[in-house]
Structures are given as structure tokens and as C-alpha cells.
Design a protein that fits this description.
By secondary structure, this protein is of the alpha/beta class. It folds into four domains: 153 residues, Rossmann fold; 129 residues, PAS domain (Beta-Lactamase, 2-Layer Sandwich), CATH 3.30.450.20; 158 residues, Reverse transcriptase/Diguanylate cyclase domain (Alpha-Beta Plaits), CATH 3.30.70; 270 residues, EAL domain (TIM Barrel), CATH 3.20.20.450. It has 29 helices and 27 strands. An eight-stranded mixed barrel has the order 18-19-21-22-23-24-25-26, surrounded by six helices. Strands 2-1-3-4-5 form a five-stranded parallel β-sheet, with helices on both faces.
């Protein structure tokens, strides 16, 4: 290996900044070899390469200076005669820059001046060429050993200095008051900590009775512990006392600030010489000499205990009673209602749209919203009512001593009214509502758990009916709740019994009238209820942790169906699948997608993943990472229901998006093909400006289709063309289209013809 190749190899290993690195046992020293003769440099490199050194070479002074600026070196082997500068100049540069590296000068110069100049500049040693192999290796090892010893000494000195500094700090900042009392209870010694904590100087306390410091209410306890005569192992005892603090330089016994202090008092005794002659050494009697004590300030601990006790029963975020305290108060209210034969109401309040706000604006803004909502709810209550935070965005209320149900209804309506007013979260105007369930004691339950459970069931009934309202519990709701549980259990069995099926809604290119793709939609062939759409069972799957296994099933089913697509001539069509946020959040989604496509031999270009806008802002960095992986695989990405969620245009640049889908809520508003619908036009303009594909959903009338086509949206799906159809029917449609037996779907087709084809 020549010097140049050696230089290239070692530079790849040495890339850290030029700062001091300690020579520990596992540290590999870095050496800089500087010589303008390639043969000598290569020979030197070969001589040192088998040792545990990192070697860097330089053939001239400028190269050496560049390396010294880049890297930290422990040792420099330096030739004095270089073509562009002398070794002395390099050493001057190192000294001027404060570069911490030993230098071994190697020179063929026989003059004494060169050696003197090198040593004056701090060279570790001077080797005259030609030098022996042993001499060089020994000199290098000695120089490095010296550095190791210097580093070890520096570390030992640093540890000693740190230890001494720590000792001084502990002594100077001792948290304890150390004191001694004589047998009469007068203070004979106290450290300076008494002044820092209590405001009394040592001179003010020495010779005075301890009682001047003890609060009046604690005098009896202090007298007992300080005057009790204990010996042997019983000489130590503990007591907590409140000591007076001196305020404003004036002694004020009763109105000064008080501080809680625990006292660990140990009796001090001296032997009775006369009795020593009469007792054995194991039975020496003692006289009480005084007390040595350590007083520790526990004021902060006492306050912390009060805070902890408070927090144990209160929600930290809203400062409302928590679930534990609420149950205590509800239990008391039930006892009083039972004694007085009165009614009480329990409310369960769940904030609608809170999760959307939390996901879009972040948890900090979500916490602010909870705090503001809690204040508004509290303002609607009577003096004896209790509002508590159950957890998340759920609140519970107990209304004792109801005159009738109307009282609970009035407060529930106040809740809804106050929550409908906009919330200002640092410039963001946010609107929410609430779903409120109400249970009345004793008709809806006589125990805490029954009342809470029935109020919860009533709240979910409100949510099922569209949210933003209140409802009193009724026994029929319990039956509905049982039906939900039964539906969840049936859904679990549906996966095992292969009751799920994929349906497909074709997407039409209105310019050609041909099918260009389809959106996959899940259906459940329920044994009793028949064919159920995704909206009737997927919400239960998301709530009960079934979304992941259902999505796994969907991925396999779509790939199997795509094989039949392609056999029927649909290999150029794209399949859109809706991706659950829970499925994207799972780390192995990409691997599952890639594995399924490989296993079934499906081209990734045939797959388009549809995500909602909220996925983009739940965890944007993670979402970008996952979607980029899909795009690198060849899968395209579409934004579903564009414009209905958190429509931030910035994510359209940051996320790898290929398609925008116009939500059917916007399409539904088109009633006049010559009208003006600015939201539709804006979405079309955004897609055109960003070069994105555009699909309109929910197209049901020819008027809607003509308006969309006239303004630049040419791919559509909806009942005007096809309803979601089974795989068998979809394959039939594809085969007819390939055979030319299927009439193209054009805008002027009669509605009756469209219905027959669908």
C-alpha cells in the first residue's frame, strides 16, 4: 500500500471534529504522519499500521495544516523539511491554535539548531534519520503512554476537585438546624441554618429557652419530648413542632409566620463517678446532661402532601373533582336523597367533535378547550351541584334535591346553549356541542354504578341519534345497548365465518364513458339482518379494536379479487381502498401491503390508498414516512372527502398525494349546471394547479355530471352510473366493456338506462 492509498483509507475512518479526546483503554490513538518523500511515508505507515492506531498521512505542510484543522490527533510524526513550509512553521501553527498533540520530529538534518528549534517549540522528541524501527516504535509508545498518564492524572485531579466541591456544597447548604440544649432546656448551640430558616441570629438564641421558638399550640408536646428522661436505646425520639419565624426584624410571638419542623432529639448523658464504683460496667447510671437535636424543615413537604391530597381527588387539568371524589359526593347525595325521600339526577356529558379538534390543533389546544368547556359548564350549575371530569372529554354531574325532572332538563339545555358558542383557541374559532345522558334516582337506579351506567347509556343514545342533545334514560335503551354488544360479538364471528365481502363502485371517465377504476367498499352478509353497509358496522369495529383484523382481511380480499379483475380485462384499472387511521398507525402496514402484492402478483400501480385529511395532521411526520414508502413501492395516494376536514393546503405540498376526491356533500349542492359553486371550483383549481388527478364522489344527476365536466372534472363515481356492486357483477360489467357489449356511460344517457346497468 502506498502513502496516497493509505491516506484515503484512513481518512474514511476519521471524520470527527478536532477536539480533545481522552486516551482510555479502549480508545484508538490517532496519528498524523507528515513526510514529503512517498517512500519514507509509506514505510512509516507500514511500520505502524499493525498497531491499534488510526493513521492519517500528509505529504506537505498545507495538507498537514488541513488535517490538523479537521481532526484531533494525539501524536504528529513530523518531517522538518517539507516542500511548502518547514516543520517548525507547522509547530508554530499548532501552538498558536492551541492544538493539543505531541510532536515527534524526524529529520535528516545533522545541525543542532533544528533539534533545538523543535524542542523549544514543545516537541516530545527528536529522531534523526535514519532511525531504527525499535527506536521509533518505543518513542511513539512512550509519547502515547505519557499522554495516557497525563489524562489519568487530570481525571484523578478532576474527581478530587469535584469531590471537594461537593463536600463544601453539602456542608454550606445543609438543610438542617443543628442544636443542643442544656438540662434546663436552654439553647447552648445552634448553627447558622437557624438564621436562614427562622430569621434568628445565633446570638439571639444562645442562652434562651427553646420555648421562645415553639408555637403556643405545640408547647405541651415540646415540653413532654424535651423533659422526658430517656437512656440507652430509648434516648432517641421524634416529634413534629411548629417553630416561630422572626419577621421584619421584630420579635412577634403570635402573628409571625409559622414553619413546621420535625425534631429528632437525642439525650446526652455523662457518667456519675460516684456510682461507677458501686455498679458494674454494664449497669452504669447516668445524669441527664442535655439534648442534641437536628431540626429539619419539612414545610415544603407538608405543602406537597396537601397538594398531593388535593390532586388525588381533583383533575389536574380542569381543577374539577375527579372520578373518585365524584363517587364520594354522589354516594353522600344518594344517602341524603334516600333519607329525605327526594330525587337526584346524574348527568353524563360527552363533548362532540372534541377528538377532531384535538387531532387537528394538537393536544395543547385540546387541553385549553377542555378547560374553557369546564368553566362554562360550571357556570350553569347551582351551588350544591357537583361537576367532575370523568376522563378525556367526558364530564359527570350530580344534581341533588331535584324538585322534578324539569330541573335536570333546564340545566342540560343550559349546557348545550353555552357550548354552542364559539371557543377561541389563540385565534382558532372552534365550535363543539355535547351529548348528554341523564339518569334519575331512584327510578333509574339506586346505586352509584347503576346511575352512572344508565346515564352513560342515555348519552350514547344521543350520539346515535346525531349528537348535540340530551336524553333521559329509559329501560328500552338498555336493550339497545345489549344489541350493540351482540353486534360486536357477531362482527367477531363474521371474520371467522367469512361473512364479509368486498363490493365495488366503478369510476367513469365521462369523456370516453369507460370504467377506469373502482372504489372497494366493505359489506357484511349478516345472517339475520342481511347485507349491511360499512357505515353500519365499521364504527363498532373502530371502537372495539376490530379494525386491524378487518383491515388485514380486506387487504387479502382485494388482492384475490384483483386477480379476477385482471383476468376479465381490468389490468389497466386502478382499485381504490379506504385506509383506516388505526391501520396506518400500525408500524407493519407497509410490510403487509408489500407482502400481499408480492404474494398475489399484483402490480402496485393498480392500487390507490384513500386517506382522510385528518390522518395528515394526526402524526404528520410518521404519516409522511409511511406514505412515502407506499409511493416508492408504486402505490398512489388519494385524499378522500377533500374539503370536509382540516383543509390545510400546506400538507398538499408535504405529503405524496396523487388524487383529490370531491366529497359528495359538495356535489349534492349542484342543482343548476349553469350555476356558480365556488367550493367545487376551488377544489378543481387546486387539483389542476398541483397536477393532481380529480374524482367526484356521489354524482347522482346528469346536471351534476355536466357541471363537473364543464369545469374540468372528468372522472366520477355515483348512483348516476353505478351503485356499489358485487365482484361477480363487476366482472360481468368489465367483460361486457372489453367485448364492446356495454354501452358507454355518457352524460346524455337516459336515467332509466343507467338504473338498469347499475
Amino acid at each position: 500500500m502506498n502513502a496516497t492509498s493509505a491516506n484515503a483509507q484512513t481518512l474514511h475512518l476519521a471524520t470527527d471534529a478536532p477536539h480533545a479526546v481522552p486516551l482510555t483503554s479502549d480508545y484508538c490513538p490517532r496519528l498524523l504522519l507528515v513526510d514529503d518523500e512517498p517512500r519514507l511515508l509509506s514505510s512509516l505507515y507500514e511500520l505502524l499500521r499493525d498497531r491499534d492506531y488510526t493513521l492519517v498521512t500528509a505529504t506537505c505542510g498545507s495538507e498537514a495544516l488541513a488535517q490538523l484543522n479537521r481532526l484531533h490527533f494525539d501524536l504528529v510524526l513530523l518531517d522538518l523539511r517539507l516542500p511548502d513550509m518547514s516543520g517548525h512553521e507547522i509547530m508554530d501553527f499548532m501552538n498558536g491554535k492551541g492544538i493539543d498533540a505531541d510532536v515527534i520530529v524526524m529529520s535528516g538534518d545533522v545541525g543542532i539548531e533544528a533539534a533545538i528549534g523543535a524542542l523549544k517549540r514543545g516537541a516530545y522528541d527528536y529522531l534523526r534519520k535514519p532511525y531504527s524501527r525499535e527506536e521509533l516504535l518505543k518513542t511513539v509508545e512512550n509519547a502515547l503512554q505519557k499522554r495516557r498518564l497525563a489524562v489519568d492524572n487530570q481525571q484523578i485531579a478532576q474527581r478530587l476537585e469535584n469531590s471537594e466541591r461537593m463536600y463544601r456544597y453539602l456542608v454550606d447548604s445543609s438543610p438542617d438546624i443543628i442544636y443542643t440544649l442544656n438540662h434546663e432546656g436552654h439553647i447552648t448551640f445552634v448553627n447558622d441554618r437557624a438564621y436562614q430558616l427562622l430569621g434568628f441570629t445565633r446570638d439571639e438564641l444562645i442562652g434562651r429557652h427553646y420555648s421562645v421558638l415553639v408555637h403556643d399550640e405545640d408547647q405541651e408536646r415540646a415540653r413532654y419530648v424535651f423533659t422526658e428522661r430517656r437512656t440507652d436505646e430509648r434516648a432517641s425520639r421524634n416529634v413534629e413542632l411548629r417553630l416561630r419565624c422572626k419577621g421584619n426584624g421584630i420579635e412577634r410571638t403570635f402573628s409571625n409566620t409559622l414553619m413546621t419542623i420535625p425534631l429528632n432529639a437525642i439525650g446526652m448523658h455523662v457518667p456519675d463517678i460516684d456510682q461507677m464504683r458501686e455498679q458494674t460496667r454494664d449497669h452504669i447510671r447516668h445524669q441527664h446532661f442535655g439534648i442534641y437535636g437536628v431540626a429539619r424543615d419539612i414545610t415544603d413537604r407538608k405543602r406537597a402532601e396537601e397538594v398531593i391530597s388535593y390532586q388525588a381527588y381533583h383533575d389536574i387539568l380542569t381543577d374539577l373533582p375527579n372520578r373518585m371524589l365524584f363517587k364520594d359526593r354522589l354516594g353522600l347525595a344518594v344517602i341524603q336523597a334516600k333519607r329525605k325521600l327526594t330525587e337526584l339526577a346524574v348527568m353524563f356529558v360527552d363533548l362532540d367533535r372534541f377528538k377532531l379538534v384535538n387531532d387537528t390543533l394538537g393536544h395543547v389546544k385540546g387541553d385549553e378547550l377542555l378547560q374553557q368547556a369546564a368553566l362554562r359548564l360550571k357556570e350553569c350549575l347551582r351551588k350544591g351541584d357537583t361537576l367532575a371530569r370523568q376522563g378525556g372529554d367526558e364530564f359527570t354531574i350530580v344534581l341533588p334535591e331535584l324538585r322534578d325532572r324539569q330541573d335536570a332538563k333546564v340545566i342540560a339545555e343550559k349546557f348545550l346553549e353555552t357550548l354552542q358558542k364559539p371557543f377561541d383557541l389563540d385565534g382558532h374559532q372552534v365550535h363543539i356541542s355535547a351529548s348528554i345522558g341523564i339518569a334519575i334516582y331512584p327510578s333509574d337506579g339506586e346505586t352509584i354504578d347503576e346511575l352512572l351506567r344508565h346515564a352513560d347509556i342515555a348519552m350514547y343514545q344521543v350520539k346515535a341519534l346525531g349528537k348535540n342533545g340530551h336524553s333521559f334514560y329509559h329501560n328500552s335503551m338498555l336493550d339497545m345497548s345489549h344489541q350493540k354488544i351482540a353486534l360486536e360479538q357477531a362482527l367477531r364471528r363474521a371474520l371467522e365465518n367469512n361473512e364479509l365481502e368486498m363490493y365495488y363502485q366503478p369510476q367513469i371517465d365521462v369523456n370516453t364513458g369507460r370504467i377506469t377504476g373502482a372504489e372497494g367498499l366493505m359489506r357484511w352478509n349478516h345472517p339475520q339482518r342481511g347485507l349491511l353497509s360499512a357505515g353500519e358496522f365499521l364504527p363498532f369495529a373502530e371502537e372495539n379494536g376490530l379494525m386491524l383484523p378487518i383491515s388485514d382481511w380486506m387487504l387479502g380480499a382485494l388482492c384475490r379479487d384483483l386477480l379476477q379483475w385482471n383476468a376479465a380485462g381490468g389490468e389497466h384499472m386502478r382499485l381504490s381502498l379506504n385506509l383506516s387511521p388505526q391501520y396506518l398507525d400500525r408500524g407493519d402496514f407497509f410490510e403487509k401491503m408489500r407482502g400481499a402484492l408480492t404474494r398475489y402478483g399484483i402490480s402496485p400501480a393498480q392500487i390507490e390508498v384513500e386517506i382522510t385529511e385528518n390522518i395528515c395532521i394526526r402524526n404528520p411526520l410518521y404519516a409522511i414516512e409511511q406514505l412515502n414508502k407506499l409511493c416508492q413501492l408504486g402505490v398512489s395516494v388519494a385524499i378522500d372527502d377533500f374539503g370536509t376536514g382540516y383543509s390545510s393546503l400546506s400538507y398538499l405540498h408535504r405529503f405524496p398525494i396523487h388524487t383529490l376526491k370531491i366529497d359528495q356533500s359538495f356535489v349534492k349542492e349542484i342543482h343548476d349546471e349553469h350555476g356558480h359553486y365556488p367550493v367545487i371550483l376551488a377544489i378543481i383549481s387546486i387539483a389542476r394547479g398541483l397536477g393532481l388527478h380529480l374524482v367526484a364522489e356521489g354524482v347522482e344527476t346528469a346536471t351534476q355530471a355536466r357541471y363537473l365536466q364543464a369545469n374540468g372534472c372528468t372522472t366520477m363515481q355515483g348512483y348516476l352510473y353505478y351503485r356499489p356492486i358485487s365482484l361477480t357483477d363487476f366482472i360481468t360489467v368489465l367483460q361486457k366493456q372489453e367485448a364492446g357489449d356495454l354501452a358507454p356511460q355518457v352524460l346524455h344517457a337516459a336515467p332509466s338506462m343507467v338504473a338498469i346497468q347499475a
